[in-house]
Amino acid sequence: ACSWLPAANPTPTTTATTTTTTTTTTTTTTTTTTTTTATTTTTTTATTTTATTTTTTTTTTTTTTTSTATTTATATAIAPLARRQLWPACGPGIFGAPRGAVGE
């Protein structure tokens, strides 16, 4: 019963939260151009058609990372003891405090 000790300093606890958001946007544009050329002679008409297709794809990726750290410390309170209080089971320490007390 002589194990009285003051409360230890509180140990900080850190909680980290990381949030990652990825957004991908894809845009596809297709352009078709058709050209028709007609050639006419006195007896024959010839038609030539040329088609050109162009496809453009654009991809945009955005990544956002947010980190949040929270540190908390909780201390346990101990009721104060009188400096001259005697503990008969252990015998008084210096200043009448129990053995193992602060300053002992």
Task: Give an account of the 3D structure.
The protein is 0% helix and 54% strand. It contains no helices and 2 strands. A hairpin with a 4-residue loop joins strand 1 and strand 2. The chain starts with 12 loop residues before the first strand and ends in a 32-residue tail after the last strand. Residues 82-89 have low confidence and may be disordered. The chain is rod-shaped and about 130 Å long. The protein has a two-stranded antiparallel sheet with strand order 1-2. It has strands at residues 13-40, 45-72. By secondary structure, it is an all-beta fold. Residues 1-29 are annotated as: Disordered.
Summarize it.
The protein contains no helices and two strands.
Mind summarizing the main beta sheet? 2 strands, antiparallel
| SSE run | EE
Helix-and-strand structural type: mainly beta
Cα gyration radius (Å): 43 Å
Give the averaged pLDDT, no decimals: 70
Number of helices: 0
Q: Count of DSSP E strands? A: 2
- Strands of the widest sheet, in order across it, are 1-2
**What fraction, in percent, of the residue positions are helical?**
under 10%
Strand content: over 45%
Low-confidence stretches: 82-89
What global shape is seen? rod-shaped
Distance between the termini: 16 Å
